[in-house]
Amino acid sequence: MKYPWWKGAVIYQVYPRSFHDSNDDGIGDLKGIVEKLDYLRWLGVDAVWLSPIFKSPMVDFGYDVSDYRDIDPVFGTMDDFDLLLEEAHKRGIKVILDQVYNHTSDQHPWFLESKSSRTNPKADWYIWMDGEPGKPPNNWRSFFGGSAWEWCEERKQYYLHLFAKEQPDLNWRNPQVREAILETIEFWLQKGVDGFRFDVVNMFYKDAWFRDNPIGEDGQQYNVFNIDRPETLLAVEEIQELVERYPDRVTIGEVASPMGFYAYLEYTKPGRLNLAFNFEFMHVPEFKASLFRKMVEDTERIFEDLSWPCYVLGNHDTRRVRSRYDGENSIERCKLLATMLLTLRGTAFIYYGEEIGMEEAVIPYGEIQDPEGKNLWPEKPGRDGCRTPMQWDDSQYAGFSRVKPWLPVNENKREVNVAHQESDPNSLLNHYRSLIELRKDSDVLKWGKLQVLESSQDVFAYLRSWRGKRIVVVLNFLGETTSAGLQLSEKAQVLHSNRRQPGKVCSLHDLKLHPYEALVMEVE
Ligand code: GLC
Ligand code: CA
Questions:
Q1: The whole model's pTM is what?
Q2: What are the start-end ranges of the E strands in 222-302?
C-alpha cells in the first residue's frame, strides 16, 4: 500500500516577512526564500508552508488579503513565486500555500463593491446586518478586541469581522462566494502547488440567526454561535473534492476551536481535510512527562485509524517553544521535544527558527506591529515576539538583511544562529537534522503504530512498530539521571540520542537515562 507523502512528512513553516530579505528593505521576500532553499534541503524537510504571500495592506501581515491571485510587491512578483516553486521542486521540497477564506481585506475589490450600496451585485458577499450606530446586532467579540461589528456609513449597516475591522468576514452562505473561492483554489492547483493550509477554517459559517454568544460567570464569552457551525463541514467537503482531483496534494486546516481534539477529528474525517493542526502540545503548561504523555495518549485514542494525526510545537501565533517553560537547560529540553515531535506517529510541523532554538523576543510597546498586541496590550503583548527575523549568523542583522529589519533581531543571535550551529555536531540544529534523516529512512517512524509504554514517572516512553520492526523512544523530562522503568527485557541498539553515541547496545529492563536524555533505539 502506498502512503500519501504527507503522512510521514516534516513540514517547515516559513513566515515570509521574517525569513530572508533579498533586496535590503528590511522585510523578508520570496527571492530570499529561494536563496535559502539549499538550507531547507540540507535540513531535510519534505515541504515548506508559506504564511500568506498575497497582495495585502498588511494590517494583519498578509492574513488580510486584497487579491488572492497576486503576490504582494513587498514579497516579490508572480515570476518570483514561479521560480520559488520550480527551485523548491528541483530540490524535492513541496510548497504549501496559506489560504485565508474566512475574511478578506477591507481593500479587496469584493468588499469595496459590497460596501458601496445595498443593491450592488456583491451586496451580499459579506455579512451585513441592520442596526443603529452604537448598537451592534449582537454581542459577538472580535478576537483582536472590541465588538465584532463595524458600522459602515455608506450602507448604514454593520458588517461582521471576527478579527480586525479591516478583515471583513465573507458570507459563505452566498453560492457566488463559494464559487469564487473554489476558482481561486483551482488557480493555485493548476500552478502546481502541493497543498494548502486553510486559515481559521472552522469559522467560515456563522449562526444563521446570529444568536448572542453565552457569557460565563467570569464574564468571558463562549464562542458558540460565531464558530464551529456544522454547515462549515459541507464547505470543507466541497473544497476537498476539488483538491482531490489533483494528485498528491495536501489540505491542512487551522481548526481553532475550544472543542480541541473533537474538532480536529471532525474536520479530518474521510472526504474532509487531510490534516488539522493538533495544537495541544502548545497548551501544555509545564515541562512534565505526564502532561505530554496525556496529549499523545488522547491523540492516539481519538484519532485511532479514523484520521491521521499531526503535531505542532509552535507557530506564528504562539510564544516560542524554547521560552515557554521556566528553568535551565532550555536547549537540552528543546532537543527532547524535537525527538518527541519527530518520532511520534503523525505529520510533524516545524516553525522557522525552532530548529536553532530561537527565543521569544520582548517587543517594547512602541514597536508593537501586531494588531492583536496593539489592541490588547498589556493583557496580550501580541505575536511579534515569535516573528522576529531568522538568525542566520551573528552579524548585525543576523544575516537576515543588511538594513534594520521590520522587527528587531533577538539579542541572542551570537549563539542562536544557523552558521554557528551548523558547525557544531552537538547543536540543536544538528539534532533536528539527524532526526529528520533518521525518520526519512525509517518506515517504522513514518508509518508505524504507536504504543505508550509503562515507565517511571518523569519518563515518557513509547514503542513504534511496523512489519516486525520495533523502535523504542525514551524521554527523560528530568534534569537528573533517572531509571527509565521500562517493563521490557530485550536489548536495543541506540539509533539517536542527545547524550550518547549511536550504535551502542543497551538492555532495556535496567536502562538509566542521562538528564533530559532523548533516546531512540531499535529493539533487537
Ligand atoms: C489565523 C492566523 C493568524 C491570523 C488569523 C486571522 O489564526 O494564524 O495569524 O491573525 O487567523 O486571519
Ligand atoms: Ca525584502
A1: 0.98
A2: 250-253, 275-276
